[in-house]
Amino acid sequence: MPETDNLVHLDDVLHLATGAQLKYDAVRNLDFLLLPERVVKLNKSAASILYLIDGKRTVREIALTLSRDLETFDNKSIENDVLEFLSDCKNRGWLRR
């Protein structure tokens, strides 16, 4: 049954899409998302979020981890940014539930 809800929610547990891999290129000092038919160059923020997608953590836990790493108390803002980014990634087919 196809998913009808394309929004990402704080309690969702996400996975990279089938065939997707995160890779770090030490020569270029860049992170990439490798997909079956394309390569996406990631900025530091995007890479930081996607590397936390492990199929176990909820989106809320990912946002909390980022807040701690950034030593910020504005967790609501981080949650909103993470939700927006992950919703975009899911809509592009880079992530699945």
Structural write-up:
This protein is of the alpha+beta class and 97 residues long. It has one domain (15-96): Orthogonal Bundle (Arc Repressor Mutant, subunit A). The chain has helices at residues 44-50, 59-69, 75-91; strands at 15-16, 21-25, 30-35, 38-42, 95-96. A hairpin with a 2-residue loop joins β3 and β4. The protein is globular and about 35 Å long. The model has no long low-confidence stretch (mean pLDDT 93).
Strand arrangement, largest sheet? 2-3-4
Helix content: 25-40%
Taking the sheet with the most strands, its summary is: 3 strands, antiparallel
Percent in strands: 15-25%
Task: Report the C-alpha radius of gyration, rounded.
Answer: 13 Å
Uncertain spans = none
Question: How would you classify the helix and strand content by structural class?
Answer: alpha+beta
Q: What is the H/E order?
A: EEEEHHHE
Q: Assign an overall shape.
A: globular
CATH architecture level-2 label: Orthogonal Bundle
Overall CATH class: Mainly Alpha
> Cα distance, first to last residue?
13 Å
What is the count of DSSP helices, taking H or I runs of 4+ residues?
Answer: 3
And the CATH topology?
Answer: Arc Repressor Mutant, subunit A
